[in-house]
């Protein structure tokens, strides 16, 4: 076969494939280019734009820049847990205007406190600190970072900073006004100049009177220090202006949410004070078998919330005011409570745009956001006096707001001792007809209420238990006053109609903790509802025992009035004693015999065993309940036991118990 002729055909075919390849390749490239070109119209990956937020400007955390921009020379920082210190700081910043200066109230959590050294850049500048103490001498949540900053920065130079401190505390507590005293001392140590003495407010006495007396002396001292003349302009100064809405989308209106609009309907973790979780109430039962009081046990379901808690923590709940009280206020003031309004800050640079979430209705504001049940403070009376048509009423209201002995006595008897809330004042002063928007501006915010958690997360990971007593009493004017939170909780009934009663809540961590070593003995002292955290402790010790852990002695001292009436959790406690989870159950029934018997009497009856546990076996002591009497009496009893069995002087015994506190072996969760 002659193969010579085959070669050219093969070459031809090879060339043909090459052209074909080129054609196909060009076609594919063309399609790809066309596809890319046609897709180029929309912006590529637009998400980048959303993510790429500008870096925060320095002014957002710079109070110095804000003060310069707005011409302010006085800044009032507040460390506030229940709103009182914030209220006082607002009053002081408003006062500045009356003395020809300009002030602003500020939350230390929102600003860079390292800028304090720069305050001297502003002429006649002054920093005022209204500092409350929380728990066992602790800073309030919003002042924790500031406290840490003060502790850590020894080389900070605050020369040129003028300051003064007003401290809010309660004498019944061990660490009276600790935070205010610390800030006052520490600022001086860092070189700042105190221009007026530390003010000490005692909530066990009359906090309002303490503040008013301090303030009356403080402002003249400031004027003298800066060489400015006190204008003494006593006219009313409005902070917010009213805007009414006649046509608004109701989806844009707040209905009781604390932070984000619709946050009660669309729940998103994490949950905290600005974003509470709506926990369904699964149990609400009366604990006492008889008697005229109502003691209750509630269980809140936290399934799916990602909320974690430890025994000894507190649960904070946001209550609402009694609707009957709200409706009466509307009637007395003659207003439509369902009008949608917004109160807008006249100072556009202020971080606080509204006194409460806006826009909302007057009804929502009075139900969810404002405190209408506590007796109003003197500044509220002073500002409202102008709306009384009877000159005598005007005079009395202004007198009660003054620092004269006569005025103080009148406020003490007519407002405080008579427990007159704002409604009672309006009813008993018929000539007083304030505009509701000004009243809403002046009333303090309704605060969360804290309860010691009565469960252990080891046993109840998806449930938080509350133990509380319903507050209800008759006042000197014959009215019946009801505790806001406890009556609201009492009415959170569990029904089987599919509708679940819910409670807005979050957890506040506490230092009230079981010992790290389960083998350490624990001595728990908690009469009445002071039993709450110990129910959690007992559950946890029982759980540890079931896990095969070596659990030390668990001793409980509990007290109530009558065994057959208000012995709370009797079945649970007796069962725990049978299982030897509680190794000693000591119960004082104060009114079951002629002479009163309290927990402190039982402590002294068992002094040898107690002293052995404390002195030789490293026991941890826990006290929960009333601060004014019980906690003090318990401490005195322990001083006496240490004195007698430890062969100490009274001073040595007091120091011994104090040392237990500093070592974290004597913890208190008390209230007054």
Automatic annotation (TrEMBL):
Binds 1 FMN per monomer. Binds 1 FAD per monomer. Residues 274-515 form the FAD-binding FR-type domain. FMN binds at residues 80-85, 132-135, 168-177, 203. Residues 74-219 form the Flavodoxin-like domain. The chain crosses the membrane at residues 16-37. NADP(+) binds at residues 293, 529, 590-591, 596-600, 633. The keyword Mitochondrion does not apply. It holds the Pfam family NAD_binding_1. Its cofactor is FMN; FAD. Its EC number is 1.6.2.4. The keyword Oxidoreductase applies. GO terms for biological process: response to hormone. Keywords: Endoplasmic reticulum, FAD, Flavoprotein, FMN, Membrane, NADP, Oxidoreductase, Transmembrane, Transmembrane helix. It is an enzyme of class 1 (oxidoreductase). GO terms for cellular component: cytosol; endoplasmic reticulum membrane. It catalyses: 2 oxidized [cytochrome P450] + NADPH = 2 reduced [cytochrome P450] + NADP(+) + H(+). It is a single-pass membrane protein. FAD binds at residues 449-452, 467-469, 473, 483-486, 671. In the N-terminal section; belongs to the flavodoxin family. This enzyme is required for electron transfer from NADP to cytochrome P450 in microsomes. It can also provide electron transfer to heme oxygenase and cytochrome B5. This is NADPH--cytochrome P450 reductase. The gene is porb.
């Amino acid at each position: 076969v002659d193969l010579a002729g085959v070669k050219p055909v093969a070459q031809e075919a090879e060339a043909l494939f090459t052209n074909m390849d080129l054609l196909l390749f060009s076609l594919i490239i063309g399609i790809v280019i066309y596809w890319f070109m046609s897709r180029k119209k929309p912006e590529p990956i637009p998400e980048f734009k959303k993510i790429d937020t500008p870096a925060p400007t320095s002014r957002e955390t710079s109070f110095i820049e804000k003060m310069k921009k707005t011409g302010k020379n006085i800044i009032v920082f507040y460390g506030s847990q229940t709103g009182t210190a914030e209220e006082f700081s607002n009053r002081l910043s408003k006062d500045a205007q009356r003395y020809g200066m300009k002030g602003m109230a500020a939350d230390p959590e929102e600003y860079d406190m390292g800028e304090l050294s720069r305050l001297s850049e502003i002429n006649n500048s002054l920093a005022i600190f209204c500092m409350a103490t929380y728990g066992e001498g602790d800073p309030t949540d919003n002042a924790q970072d500031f406290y840490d900053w003060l502790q850590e920065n020894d080389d900070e130079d605050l020369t040129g900073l003028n300051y003064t401190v007003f401290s809010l505390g309660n004498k019944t507590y061990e660490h009276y006004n600790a935070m205010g005293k610390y800030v006052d001392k520490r600022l001086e140590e860092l070189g700042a100049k105190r221009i007026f003495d530390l003010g000490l407010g005692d909530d066990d006495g009359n906090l309002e009177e303490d503040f008013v007396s301090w303030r009356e002396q403080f402002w003249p001292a400031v004027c003298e220090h800066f060489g400015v003349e006190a204008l003494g302009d006593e006219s009313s100064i409005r902070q917010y202006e009213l805007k009414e809405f006649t046509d608004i989308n109701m989806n844009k209106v707040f209905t009781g949410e604390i932070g984000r609009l619709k946050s009660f309907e669309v729940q998103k973790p994490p949950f905290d004070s600005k974003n509470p979780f709506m926990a369904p109430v699964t149990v609400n039962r009366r604990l006492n078998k008889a008697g005229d009081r109502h003691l209750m046990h509630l269980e809140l379901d936290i399934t799916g919330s990602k909320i974690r808690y430890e025994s000894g923590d507190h649960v904070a709940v946001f209550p609402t005011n009694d609707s009957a009280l709200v409706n009466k206020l509307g009637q007395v003031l003659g207003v439509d409570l369902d009008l949608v309004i917004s109160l807008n800050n006249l100072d556009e640079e202020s971080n606080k745009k509204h006194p409460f979430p806006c826009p909302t209705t007057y009804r929502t504001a009075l139900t969810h956001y404002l405190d209408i049940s506590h007796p109003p403070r003197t500044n509220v009376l002073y500002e409202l006096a102008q709306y009384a048509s009877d000159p005598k009423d005007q005079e009395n209201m202004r007198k009660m707001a003054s620092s004269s002995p006569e005025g103080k006595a009148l406020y003490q008897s007519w407002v405080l001792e008579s427990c007159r809330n704002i409604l009672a004042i309006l009813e008993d002063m018929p000539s007083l007809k304030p505009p509701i928007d000004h009243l809403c501006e002046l009333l303090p915010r309704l605060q969360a209420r804290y309860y010691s958690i009565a469960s252990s997360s080891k046993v109840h990971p998806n449930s938080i238990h509350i133990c509380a007593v319903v507050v209800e009493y008759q006042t000197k004017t014959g009215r019946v006053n009801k505790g806001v939170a406890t009556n609201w909780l009492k009415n959170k009934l569990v029904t089987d109609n599919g509708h679940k009663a819910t409670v807005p809540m979050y957890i506040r961590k506490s230092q009230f903790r079981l010992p790290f070593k389960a083998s350490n003995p624990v001595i728990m002292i908690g009469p009445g509802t002071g039993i709450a955290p110990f129910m959690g402790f007992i559950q946890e010790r029982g759980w540890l025992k079931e896990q095969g852990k070596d659990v030390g002695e668990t001793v409980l001292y509990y007290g109530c009035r009558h065994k057959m009436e208000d012995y709370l959790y009797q079945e649970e406690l007796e069962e725990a004693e049978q299982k030897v989870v509680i190794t000693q159950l000591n119960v004082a029934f104060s009114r079951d015999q002629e002479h009163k018997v309290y927990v402190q009497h039982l402590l002294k009856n068992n002094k040898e065993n107690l002293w052995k546990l404390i002195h030789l076996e490293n026991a941890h002591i826990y006290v929960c309940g009333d601060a004014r009497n019980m906690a003090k009496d318990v401490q005195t009893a322990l001083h006496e036991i240490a004195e007698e069995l430890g062969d100490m002087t009274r001073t040595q015994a007091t120091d011994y118990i104090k040392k237990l506190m500093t070592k974290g072996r004597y913890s208190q969760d008390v209230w007054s």
